[in-house]
Design brief:
The chain is of the alpha+beta class. 28% of the residues lie in helices and 25% in strands. Helix 3 crosses helix 4 and helix 5 packs antiparallel against helix 6. It is an enzyme of class 6 (ligase).
Length: 304
């Protein structure tokens, strides 16, 4: 199991209750946990993970990029689905631009993945079986080929340090119930289709992405957590896109490449934690995240 560092911020009006690979969750002072909290504070740290490890190195401004992009996408998608943001709630100054105040949700225990291009674990599944999570695809497809129409490929949520497990729709229906599984599938593909069009207008290919959904107190299904960021999505430069090979991504590619290259001296299959990143890799990764933010939103970084 990977070790999650202690949260960076001690916030006077909030109590820390949980940390994930990237986000720290707080509830208002006086609440004992999620059950009696009327709101939660999600703070995106600058932590970065790779191969199921949280690295000791951080990527400056990464949390602000993830939060800013999520907020922008929540707004773009508001006519398709609601979200968990409490728009009039005040974010503490200590975590400005990297935090969201949200309504508590009952989360669905499945990650909802949409794939519009054949890459990553989907490509591996296709080469082995001719299908991706039960979605049979045409013969002869190659790496980075477009999948039309896009497909729904859910995954179970793993504990920190473990791998998510890709599942088919039948298994998702067993976990969620048929009605909710169908609703989440349809929402996932609707959101992906809209987002893929928006990204393409900005010169970005949205190859795949994962969403998380929950129910609010009224029973409505809403979009939660982060959405359409370099951590949850595979973004490619449309001008450089060429099917038949791997594509350069707006994400932690520099980190992965260095960790698996000869200079790191690290075996990703071992239980030994990865080494610290060289400053050059940190700077290149930061620049890639910021480029994704600026190209998608049309807004200069840093945020005022």
């Amino acid at each position: 199991m990977t070790t999650i560092p202690a949260p960076t911020y001690d916030l006077p009006e909030w109590t820390h209750v949980y940390s994930g690979k990237v986000r720290d969750i707080y509830v208002p002072k006086g609440a004992t946990g999620f059950a009696d909290a009327d709101r939660i504070l999600m703070v995106a740290s600058d932590r970065i993970s790779a191969y199921d490890h949280v690295l000791t190195s951080e990527i400056p401004d990464k949390g602000a990029v993830l939060t800013g992009l999520s907020m922008w996408w929540f707004d773009q998608l508001s006519d398709v689905i609601g979200n968990h943001i409490l728009p009039d709630a005040e974010v503490p100054a200590e975590v400005a631009h990297r935090a969201m105040v949200c309504t508590p949700l009952t989360m669905f225990p499945v990650e909802c993945v949409a794939r519009g291009y054949l890459t990553g674990s989907g490509l591996a599944d296709y080469r082995r079986t001719g299908a991706v999570c039960g979605n049979v695809l045409p013969e002869g497809m190659g790496e980075s080929d477009r999948i039309e129409p896009a497909i729904f490929t859910p995954a179970t949520k793993a504990e920190i340090g473990d791998h998510d497990e890709n599942i088919d729709f039948a298994r998702a229906s067993e976990i969620l119930g048929a009605e909710d599984a169908e609703a989440l599938r349809d929402l996932t593909l609707r959101i992906y289709t809209r987002a893929e069009e928006i990204a393409r207008e900005r010169g970005i290919v949205l190859a795949d992405t994962k969403f998380e959904f929950g129910r609010d107190a009224s029973g409505a299904i809403v979009l939660a957590d982060e959405v359409l960021t370099p951590d949850s999505s595979r973004f490619w430069d449309a001008a450089e896109y060429a099917p038949g090979k791997a594509q350069a991504s707006f994400d932690k590619q520099f980190v992965r490449d260095w960790l698996t290259g000869p200079d790191s001296g690290w075996d990703k299959n071992s239980d030994v934690a990865p080494p610290a990143l060289p400053q050059e890799i940190v700077e290149k990764t930061r620049a890639r995240y910021i480029e994704a933010f600026e190209r998608i939103t049309g807004t200069a970084f840093p945020l005022a």
